[in-house]
Design goal:
- The protein has 16 helices and 33 strands.
- The chain is α/β, with parallel strands linked by helices.
- A 9-stranded mixed sheet has the order 16-15-17-18-25-24-23-20-21, sandwiched between helices. Strands 1-2-3-7-10-11-12-13 form an 8-stranded parallel barrel, surrounded by 5 helices. The protein has a 5-stranded antiparallel sheet with strand order 14-27-28-33-30, covered by helices on one side.
- A hairpin with a 4-residue loop joins β8 and β9 (about 195).
- The longest helix has 28 residues, at about 225-250.
- It is globular.
């Protein structure tokens, strides 16, 4: 056995022993920092509490190679014998079950995170304390059957929730708490209706005190300074509540991880990959995990593959191929596996993707040293419009991601309200992309200016920075004439062949959606003349697409950088229509900002083969996210998305003979594929390692060792 094989086998054996070791009450370790979660969440309907069996739960978790469980504890209803008079007891609950589940899981080395949901409370509590509950601007409550949405500033959330958490921590040796639906509620999510800003008297009083006398706004309007103030208040009040919870939990048990969808005072930031309306988003696992990993490098991210099709279709699961893509993307971006399903695994109503889950969880367990401890190689960063992007900015953001993914260009994702905090990190990129980033705080705008002056190029699209005209002028040489303008029927002219290299034989590119009309500084290089809408109608009448004397793109020198602005919905049109020439407009302009844009990975891979490249450090029992990173080489993850058709997920087609060149600074010792022992032939020349992936089914992880 050679030196590599011996050390490699030791890594796997040690990892396996660690995973199977029982968890003792004396264990107060910050266990989540291993970043090796193989998590299954059982969202239990009330009635399933009547048939829970600790031994069968543990048996199923072990069959799935899971090492962590999320299971109901309290909030909407107690799944244990609560003594608190304001905590509604699940009528199906059997005393002792929660404690038995925790103990049996610990016997087999499985961590238990208990779920709380303080967004709603039972009608019996509402009848006693109606002032604790949400009230819409029209005087309406948000009700789901007999559960009422509460107000975050009222006593139930501000006082009673802490009592419930404390009761669970004092009575059960749990490893973590998970908070579902934290924060302010404006929607009945389960009915998909918008109800408005909560007008509860406690909320009114809290905002008035915080703001120095302002009245609570009645509608969400970012042009309203009072609403923008309210947004600040919400963020600060949630952070203060999270701090109190953190102090409560860590004051009792340091080993208890706090997991939720918030950013402050948490250990595990949770995200969700869900099936929504068309077009489906095949990169949701990568989007969510990359976003959190890169914005919060001191946190663990656990991105849940939500099994249900929708809130009204909970008993049908997402397609197995879709779940597989989500889980592989989680792993490829440095996270773990995480699936959330309705109820116990026994007698589950839709088990079609259980085989996929078992396969990927087992693969992660076996090759654990090669997941969860990565450093990005990306020279490009995309700014995300918020933690959970939505609406038109989301479409622009996703369209830009699709372009980069299909061109196999590595990129990181950074959340828009953390630019100032991550200034040092951002200075390491060559290009920072702002896809329709419409509102930035003053400190984040200032950082953009510093980065640009220092040589980080900026690329912005659509209405980015439209509310900051001075920054728009300085950074991009742009003055808005009309930022909202219907582009249906207009054409763009890619008339500079030295820049637009993909348009041989094509002189016009159609457009629709927003097409901003901007004036650019003299001396700038303005690109893509906009042609007017011309004459629609029968063939005999069409034509007349004359220049408007406006341009759809501009290159502007600012300090040491060249910045590009495309004040048009270029990402959205690609996300919605997939016309490839729109992608090439963006890629050709990005090449002007960073000529080596496409040189990190050089490949003949199909555009639907997702490639994620990272440096890695072996993830062993002694390693945590706080351990100084020491690179052992690179890992290239290939995820086969050829089975994705836009509205259906099929089994992917095998892809053969994928040629790859990766830019590295060392001569590799060995190149091999996770799951196969034989090495892959390679050539190292002029700073690149070249090899061939002979066959790709659903996933391949190629290890390039130093």
């Amino acid at each position: 056995m050679n030196k590599f094989s011996l050390s490699f086998c030791c890594l796997l054996c040690f990892s396996s022993l660690w995973a199977q070791k029982p968890i003792l009450p004396s264990d107060q370790s910050e266990w989540w920092k291993r970043n090796n979660l193989r998590l299954i969440q059982m969202n239990l309907p009330a009635y399933e509490a009547a048939k829970l069996d600790a031994d069968s739960i543990v048996k199923d978790l072990r069959n799935f190679s899971a090492n962590a469980l999320i299971i109901n504890a309290g909030g909407i209803m107690a799944f244990y014998e609560s003594k608190l008079d304001f905590h509604y007891l699940n009528p199906y609950m059997r005393p002792g079950d929660l404690g038995r589940i925790v103990q049996r899981c610990h016997d087999h080395g499985i961590r238990v995170i208990v779920r709380f949901d303080f967004s709603r409370a039972d009608v019996s509590i509402f009848q006693k304390h109606p002032d604790w509950f949400y009230l819409s601007p029209t005087g309406k409550r948000i009700v789901n059957t007999d559960k009422y949405v509460v107000s975050i500033n009222a006593p139930y959330v501000q006082e009673k929730a802490f009592d419930i958490v404390a009761e669970v921590l004092d009575n059960f040796d749990v490893d973590g708490i998970f908070l579902n639906m934290p924060g302010y509620q404006t929607r009945n999510s389960y009915e998909n209706t918008y109800e408005g800003i909560d007008q509860n008297e406690y909320d009114k009083a809290a905002f008035k005190k915080w703001s120095g006398g302002l009245d609570l706004p009645l509608k969400e309007d970012k042009n309203d300074p009072v609403f923008r103030k309210y947004e600040e208040f919400k963020k600060e009040s949630i952070s203060l509540w999270s701090k109190r919870l953190h102090e409560l939990v860590k004051g009792r048990k340091k080993k208890v991880a706090i997991c939720t969808y918030l950013e402050d005072y948490v250990d595990i930031i949770r995200h969700e990959s869900q099936t929504h309306g068309l077009p489906y988003w095949p990169y949701t696992g990568s989007d969510n995990t990359n976003h959190i990993e890169q914005t919060f490098p001191d946190k663990i991210v656990s991105n849940a593959s939500i099994q249900q099709i929708s809130f009204r279709s909970r008993f049908n699961a997402a397609e197995p191929e879709e779940v597989g893509i989500r889980l592989w993307e989680n792993l490829a971006n440095g996270s773990g596996t995480d699936v959330s399903l309705m109820g116990d695994l026994r007698e589950y109503e839709d088990q079609r993707n259980f085989a996929v889950m078992k396969k990927i969880y087992a693969f992660q367990k076996k090759w654990e040293p090669y997941f969860g401890n990565y450093a990005s190689v990306a020279k490009v960063a995309v700014v995300a419009p918020g933690y959970w992007p939505g609406g038109l900015p989301m479409e622009e953001y996703r369209g830009i991601q699709m372009m980069l993914k299909e061109a196999h260009i590595p990129f990181d994702i950074i959340q828009d309200n953390h630019l100032a905090r991550l200034k040092a990190k951002l200075s390491q990129y060559k290009v920072l992309i702002l896809p329709d980033i419409q509102y930035l705080a003053a400190q984040d705008l200032a950082v953009l200016q510093e980065l640009s002056q220092a040589g980080v190029s900026l690329f912005a699209s659509n209405r980015s920075l439209f509310d900051a005209p001075a920054a728009l002028k300085t950074l991009f040489g742009a003055t808005i004439v009309k930022d909202l303008n219907d582009g249906e029927g207009n054409y763009l002219q890619p008339n500079d062949p030295k820049i637009f290299t993909h348009f041989v034989g094509q002189s016009m590119v159609h457009f629709k959606y927003n097409l901003g009309l901007y004036q650019f500084d003299r001396g700038d290089k303005s690109l893509l003349p906009i042609l007017d809408k011309g004459r629609p109608g029968p063939p005999e009448m069409i034509g007349g697409h004359d220049p408007l004397n406006y341009f759809a793109a501009n290159l502007h020198q600012n300090g040491k950088s060249t910045n590009a602005l495309m004040p048009i919905n270029i990402g959205r049109i690609y996300y919605q229509t997939g016309y490839e020439q729109h992608k090439y407009l963006v890629l050709d302009i990005l090449k002007q900002l960073y000529p080596a844009l496409d040189q990190e990975i050089v490949t003949n891979a199909h555009p639907r083969v997702e490639m994620i490249l990272n440096e890695y450090m072996p993830n062993t029992a002694e390693v945590t996210i706080a351990t100084p990173f020491r690179s052992a080489g690179h890992i290239l993850h290939l995820i086969n998305l050829t089975g994705f058709s836009g509205n259906t997920y099929f089994e992917p087609l095998p892809v053969y003979d994928t040629e790859v060149k990766i830019k590295v600074t060392y001569r590799p010792r060995k190149v091999w594929k996770l799951g196969e022992e034989r090495p892959i032939p390679f050539v190292y020349q002029e700073g690149y390692v070249s090899f061939k992936v002979s066959r790709l089914t659903d996933y391949a992880g190629i290890v390039v060792e130093k």
